[in-house]
Structure formats: C-alpha cells, structure tokens
Amino acid sequence: MKKVGIVMGSDSDLPVIRKATDTLDAFSIPYEVHIYSAHRTPEQAKEFASSAAENGFGAIIAAAGMAAHLAGAIAANTVLPVIGIPCKSTTLDGIDALLSTVQMPSGIPVATVAINGGVNAALLCAQILAVEDDGLRQKLIDKRNKDAAAVLAKDADVMNKLKD
Ligand code: RP5
After folding, report:
1. Which mutation among 13, 17, 96 tests ligand 1's pocket best, with the greatest number of atoms within 8 A of CB?
2. Fewer CB atoms near the end CB (10 Å): N or C, the chain?
3. pTM of the entire structure?
4. 19 Cβ neighbours under 8 A, 6+ residues apart
C-alpha cells in the first residue's frame, strides 16, 4: 500500500496531527510525519513534495495555522492529492488558516477539511487509497456501518434519557 505523507508547519500542530495518525493507525495505513514550514523551511517543504510520488506516497496531508500556506506550497510541487487541514491558533479561531488553505487558485487544488479536521483528512486519504484496494474499501464501509449503528443506538435511547 502507498504511504500517506503528513506535514505540519510547527510542532504546535501536533494535537491535530495525532487525530489523523490515530485514524490511519485504525486502518493500518502506513504514514510518515514531518515538520516543514512553507515560511520557515520552504526548501525542505518543496523537496518533500517534489519527491513524494517517487518515494512511495499516495496522498499528502498538510496542516498549518495562521497564514497557512503549507498545503498550497506542497500542492504546487506535486500532482499527488493534497488534503489541507487549517489549524486553529491563538487568534482568529482558525478562520485565518481556513481561508488561506481553502482559497486556492484554479490549477493547484487543495482538498480542505474543517478547522482542526484531522480525522476527516485521514479518512479522505484512506478513501483515495481504497480506490485501488478492496480490503481497505471494505474497512471503510464497516466503519460507516459501525458509526451509524452507534447513532441508532442513541436514537433508541434518547426518549428514555429525557424521562430520567
Ligand atoms: C504555522 O504557524 C504553524 O502551522 C502553526 O499552526 C502556527 C504557529 O506556529 P508556532 O509559532 O507555534 O511554531 O506556521
């Protein structure tokens, strides 16, 4: 199976990345994690992106906060699918990163998930890899069914809870 590349702009983004790695672990998807910044280490970010396909990656997650240019900078240097996670920092509640990540010009797409959306970023990578992997596809279907069953169990119980 191809690996998922995970890049974050700073180690302060680690809590968001942990949600992604936990999700990838649940599907036994291999990954590699790096701290590269579009602004502080632009050469390393570029080198990672431009060599990612030949290094066995099938999709890349790029997470950054504030003026979040990392996902766009990675996407500019590869045709692998890039999933951007806007990270919430101490000011502006992550809206700054959301707009910086999502508003890509035509020609260089970044699939942007919700602010701090580490789980969905990993699930999107799993879905991309599952196009060529029936076993992984089945695992994704099983998870959807399990999640739905959990909601239905809550539905069955909600009237009882209100009566307590
Ligand atoms: C971004 O700036 C990082 O992705 C992080 O979300 C934010 C703050 O970085 P630190 O100052 O905590 O290193 O580049």
Report:
1. 13
2. C
3. 0.96
4. 116, 118, 119, 122
